Structure formats: C-alpha cells, structure tokens
Amino acid sequence: MQQFWNWQNQKIAWRVESKKDDFPIAIVLIHGFGASKDHWRFNQEFISTICQCYSLDLVGFGESSKPKSQLPYEKQYVNSFNYCFDNWSQQIVDFCHEIVKKPVILIGNSIGGVIALNASKELGKACSTVVLINCAQRTMDDKRLNEQSVLMRFFRPIIKTLVRQRFLSSMIFKNASNPTFIEKILKIAYPSGNNINSELIKILFEPTQSNGASEAFRGFINLFDDHLAPDLLKDLKIPVFLIWGEKDPWEPLKDAQKWLQTFECIRSLDIIPDAGHCPHDEMPTKVNPILEKIIQEAI
C-alpha cells in the first residue's frame, strides 16, 4: 500500500507490505541512485511473508519531492535541499521513528548501502542489522584522490568547477534521461540481461520527467567529500552482511572481499554469479533466499 509522509516540508512516497506484522522488527529497503522504491519489485512482497517490509523514495527520486539543489557553499533558498548522505540518512532515521516505530533491519543497494550504514549509527539499538547489496565505493571522493591517475588529479579542479554549473548538469541529465540511454546503462549494470524489460525502464524513466528531477542529479555529482563506507564500518558494532553481484562493472567484488577480511562487524559475503550492480532485481530468486536467512537469524 503506497502512502505519503511529510518530512521537512518534502513529500515522501513510501510503501509497506505486510503479511506478518506481529514480528518485533521490520525491514526498510533503501534504493540506489536514480532508482526508487519500485526497484524492490521482486523483493518487498517476498520479504513481507516474513515480517513487515517498508520501502521509500529518497528525496529527489521516485515520487518524492525533488527540491532545488543547494551545494554547501551556495545561498540557501526556501525548500532547497543539500543532497548528501547525512540528509538522506536523517530521512531514513526519522522514517523509522515516525512511521515504522519498531527496531529495523536496513537493506541498501549502491548508495543506499552507504545511507543504511550512516543511518544505523544514529538509530543505535533501534537498528539490529545492516545488509549491503553492492554498496557504493565512491571512488571519486576527495578522500580517495591518491588512488586516481595523475591526469585525473590534474583535471579534477576543472571538472569540479564545471559540474557546479546548473546549465551543464541539466544538459547532461536531459541527454541521459531517455529510455534508449537508460536501456544501454541497464545492459552494463545487469550483465546477464535478466529482468531488463519495459517495466524496469518505466520505473527508471518516469521519475526523470517530473519537475526538479535534474536537481538530485546535480546534487549527487557534486558530492566530492562525503561519507565512505569503510569509514562507517570501522567502529560499527551491529552485524553487517554483504551481498554482491560478481560482475558489477562499478563496485569491484575484490573490494567487498577486502572488507570481509578487514571489518569485524561483517559476518558474511554472498556472491551472486554472473550478476551485476543490482543483483536483487537482476537475480531475485538467488538473492531473496539469502535475505530470508539473514532476516530469520536476526529475528
């Protein structure tokens, strides 16, 4: 059942599926960049057979409000929004307190994983577990500058200046927000080709046509100094579980394997063969049983 929630003067779209609502915990699903709550189309109903399962659209995506982007050094306007991990995380924290109202397991894909980790720290005991599905590495962050090539480091100041310009970010967004381009990106993100269909293209395309859709894009491509997953994992006490598409073109499996060996909070790494960046949607029949096992152990 889809509903709307007013958060900091922003309209937030959310959905709950519940075939068993008597369990002491609930699941909150957090989508990645450019996606929405509908990206959990093959997972939410399945999870709801175990316990209550919520999904929501982050500010700037899906059917939620898409306010004017405000970069940290820019003048603040009425209802403008700083698209950053702390603000998205606060949205999740407040959603858990005001809507869910019980302890949660946070499940995040891509940047949704970083948001889940960050939100779990503020939720404290109200978050029992985090599941990361191909968590974003954020290789372009300033804190990873030494990993970039000399050429990239040389051009970086120019790139940062250019992407601040609204006319340029809007032009890039306009060229990218069409079904043909979206399908091309999906064929990279979903290397097996599974579940790339008209429904998925519609899920990703329709929100790009709403007012303000390019603002979240502008905010995101200007996130050059924000949270990194390894920094959030360092002192985390709750269990973290990794699920990873083996052939992710953007978030290498080797990094997830390194995390497993490095951080005490990480309990396991499940690899989905032949899957890419979004294995929960590309191969749900392989991912859903893993989620079920994690949830049942947490309960």
SSE blueprint and pairings:
Layout: E1 2-7, E2 10-17, E3 26-30, H1 44-47, E4 53-56, H2 85-100, E5 104-109, H3 111-123, E6 127-133, H4 150-163, H5 166-176, H6 179-189, H7 198-205, H8 213-221, H9 229-233, E7 240-245, H10 253-262, E8 266-272, H11 279-282, H12 284-298
Parallel strand pairs: 3-4, 3-5, 5-6, 6-7, 7-8
Antiparallel strand pairs: 1-2, 2-4
Helix pairs in contact: 2-3, 5-8
The computed structural class is alpha/beta
Strand content: 15-25%
Name the average pLDDT: 92
Q: How many strands in all?
A: 8
Q: What global shape is seen?
A: globular
List the uncertain runs.
none
Number of helices: 12
Radius of gyration: 18 Å
Total domain count? 1
CATH fold naming: Rossmann fold
What top-tier CATH class fits best? Alpha Beta
